[in-house]
């Protein structure tokens, strides 16, 4: 399950990735997604394992976004829905686009501070 965050600050990207990392393991095996804080990029990515064994952990209490964040979720329909539900429980979420293929959904969301 691929997650791409566009045009947001490092702290907002970290907040969104921490929320997802609380519930889902990263594909690389790390406990939490990481990004290079020295990079001057405005795009961050994470890959998560979204199976039936998702963690039922409480979300971090310090969930604050400085601005809106555009998130693109790419994967199977069930996995995309599970990630969307997790993001909806933490942030204000507006669907800004979607595309469906044979086995995959591409869902674009705009997140704001809840």
Structure summary:
Helix content is 25%, strand content 35%. A six-stranded antiparallel beta sheet has the order 2-3-1-4-6-5, with helices on one face.
Q: Can you put this structure into words, describing what you see?
A:
The protein has helices at 10-23, 77-90, and strands at residues 2-6, 25-26, 43-49, 69-75, 91-100, 105-113. By secondary structure, it is of the alpha+beta class. Strands 2-3-1-4-6-5 form a six-stranded antiparallel β-sheet, covered by helices on one side. α1 crosses α2 (77-90). The radius of gyration is 13 Å and the shape is globular. The model has no long low-confidence stretch (mean pLDDT 84).
Spatial separation of the terminal alpha carbons: 24 Å
Secondary-structure-based class equals alpha+beta
Measured on Cα atoms, how large is the radius of gyration?
A: 13 Å
Strands of the biggest beta sheet: in what spatial order?
A: 2-3-1-4-6-5
The largest β sheet comes out as:
6 strands, antiparallel
SSE string, helices as H and strands as E = EHEEEHEE
Q: Looking at the structure, what is the overall shape?
A: globular
User: How many beta strands in the DSSP annotation?
Assistant: 6
């Amino acid at each position: 399950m691929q997650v791409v965050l566009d045009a947001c600050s490092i702290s907002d990207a970290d907040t969104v990735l921490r929320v997802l990392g609380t519930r889902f393991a990263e594909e690389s095996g790390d406990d939490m997604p990481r990004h290079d804080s020295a990079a001057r990029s405005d795009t961050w990515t994470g890959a998560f394992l979204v199976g039936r064994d998702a963690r039922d952990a409480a979300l971090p209490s310090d969930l604050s976004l400085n601005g809106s964040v555009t998130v693109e979720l790419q994967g199977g329909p069930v996995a995309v829905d599970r990630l969307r539900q997790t993001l909806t429980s933490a942030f204000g979420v507006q669907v800004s686009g979607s595309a469906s293929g044979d086995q995959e959904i591409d869902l674009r969301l705009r997140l704001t501070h809840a």
